[in-house]
Design goal:
- The protein is an alpha/beta fold and 243 residues long.
- It is 51% helix and 7% strand.
- It has 12 helices and 4 strands; from the N terminus they run αβαβαβαααβαααααα.
- α2 (31-41) packs parallel to α3 (59-72), α2 crosses α8 and α11 (195-207) packs across α12.
- It is globular.
Length: 243
């Protein structure tokens, strides 16, 4: 059985076990969400809703997202979060932190997806891959707050392989990965590493070897350590039993 079939069947099993009717996910126009779209389409009888959630987003993002939806014949819904985001920013104390402001976007998207999931009795599907997950390249309580993670055990290079197998349109495979947090933002520039270097460092740390410089290895190890809190439930104080 192909990897794609295994993942599609796994998604169906998760939905069935949860007593849900289907799935919903954010369709960004990137390769990760495009793979989720294709996997969902390959899952027989699964209700699927792909949600476009522009928020001061580049027009090309919607163009790519619609191309994916048309390719895999998916139902879509567009929820423009721009006015919500602007109102939120206006209500909050002023800040010069671009990241604090940008992280509101995935958290608004999370709220939107869970609203839809509640209404339809769907599961929210995450689009994070293994390369991003291991170093915390996601927004806590944003794009990490999901019900299932179908491709979180696939490195980015494996996602690209899967995308080609599933027939994801080539322009989406070719575009530079971006979280769309601000104009011109790219994943690799923000991380300060190419995905190739990141994955060679992760390979060194997990199976051994000498695939990257010590400087890059230390950087990735630091990213993994400082983001560990993003991959676990919040720590809970447990009171001691009375003597």
């Amino acid at each position: 059985m192909s990897l794609a079939k295994q993942i599609s069947q796994w998604i169906c099993t998760q939905v069935e076990n949860a007593g849900a009717k289907g799935i919903t996910f954010g369709l960004s126009g990137g390769v990760d969400s495009a793979c989720i779209a294709a996997l969902a389409k390959d899952a027989p009888g699964l209700e699927t809703l792909a949600v476009l959630m522009p928020c001061h987003s580049a027009a090309i993002d919607a163009e790519y997202a619609h191309q994916v939806a048309e390719t895999f014949d998916l139902e879509t819904l567009t929820v423009d979060l721009t006015p919500v985001y602007d109102a939120f920013i206006t209500a909050l104390p002023p800040s010069t932190s671009r990241m604090a402001q940008a992280n509101l976007k995935p958290r608004l998207r999370m709220s939107t997806l869970y609203y839809i999931a509640n209404v339809r009795n769907y599961l929210v599907v995450g689009t994070s891959n293994k390369s991003e997950w291991l170093v915390g390249y996601f927004t806590k309580q944003g794009d990490s707050s999901v019900d299932i993670l179908p491709i979180a055990d696939l490195y980015k290079r494996e996602v690209y392989d899967l995308a080609r197998e599933l027939g994801v349109p080539q322009p989406i495979i070719d575009r530079a990965p971006t979280a769309g947090l601000w104009a011109g933002q790219t994943d690799e520039e923000e991380m300060g590493l190419t995905y190739d270097t990141l994955e060679r460092a992760l390979l060194t740390l997990t199976v051994g070897g000498d695939y990257v410089s010590q400087e890059k290895l230390d950087k990735v190890r630091h990213m993994m350590t400082t983001s560990a809190h993003k991959r676990v439930l919040p720590p809970m104080f447990v009171k001691e039993a009375d003597a």
